Amino acid sequence: MKKTEEKIKLYSAWYCPFAQRAWLSLLVNKRDFKYIEIDPYNKTEEWMRISKGFGTAPVVIEDETTLVDSLDILKYFDNPKTGTNYSPEIEETLSFINKDLIPSFYRFLKATNDEDLKKTRAEFTIFLNKFSNEINEKGQYYLGQNFSIVDLAFIPFAYRIDLLLRHYKEYIVAKEVKNFARYQQWYEAIIKAEFFKETKTGMDNYDEELINFYKVYSEGGGQEDVTKS
């Protein structure tokens, strides 16, 4: 029997944690999809059309629906027909991850002088401890026994925090997080799962490639500098 073509297309970039969010969501929700690796920095006319003018990964297309925000993608695949109404606590946590924790991680990674390093390190540590303190003690996931959108929203960044901040800023999560045992249980439960391993793109040197890619960030640069390196 001829295999039907996947209805869903995922435009992704292997190094991007936001794109990894989307990929994880499709895997966890067991959706058939076509993975398309792209270079979002190459702003071709075709790519800008596909990405609705944003030129960023991820982009997910299903039928007439195009999604260009990773958190919207997570919510969409939780329940694509009606959407999902989350509790105020979950919405607050998702907002905290997106608006506080993730930007703080990037500020710390990009800090170069001593004053900025001290300030961004302290801020980031406060935010990371806040996340850790709110992990439910009655299970291995953020909400306890049940895997949720919160786990998907943060795990790609938690992986980079452990890898990149350790390498570039000598920041050891085990020494900074007060409830490290709880955080570590949550972290390892997800990164050891097969669906997470699949999103490491099959690279034998995935960690090394990530470290090399984010070198420009550690020196104070950003997306606009990646194509110059």
Terminal CA distance reads 47 Å
Mean pLDDT over the residues: 91
Report strand order across the widest sheet: 2-1-3-4
Total separate domains: 2
Q: So what's the overall shape?
A: globular
Topology, number of strands? 4
**Can you tell me the CATH class of the largest domain?**
Mainly Alpha
Oligomerization state of this entry?
A: single chain
| Radius of gyration using CA atoms only | 18 Å
Give the percentage of residues in beta strands.
5-15%
CATH architecture of the largest domain: Up-down Bundle
For the largest beta-sheet, the strand count, sense and barrel status come to: 4 strands, mixed
Number of helices: 12
Write a compact overview of the structure shown.
This protein is of the alpha+beta class and 229 residues long.
Protein architecture, described:
The chain has two domains: 8-78, Glutaredoxin (3-Layer(aba) Sandwich), CATH 3.40.30; 88-218, Glutathione S-transferase Yfyf (Class Pi), Chain A, domain 2. 56% of the residues lie in helices and 7% in strands. It has twelve helices and four strands, in the order E-H-E-H-E-E-H-H-H-H-H-H-H-H-H-H. The protein has helices spanning 17-28, 45-50, 70-78, 88-110, 114-133, 149-169, 173-176, 180-191, 194-198, 206-213, 215-218, 223-226, and strands spanning 8-12, 33-37, 59-62, 65-67. A four-stranded mixed β-sheet has the order 2-1-3-4. 28% of the residues are buried.
Features:
7% strand, Glutathione S-transferase Yfyf (Class Pi), Chain A, domain 2, Glutaredoxin, 56% helix, four-stranded mixed β-sheet, 229 residues, 4 strands, alpha+beta, 12 helices
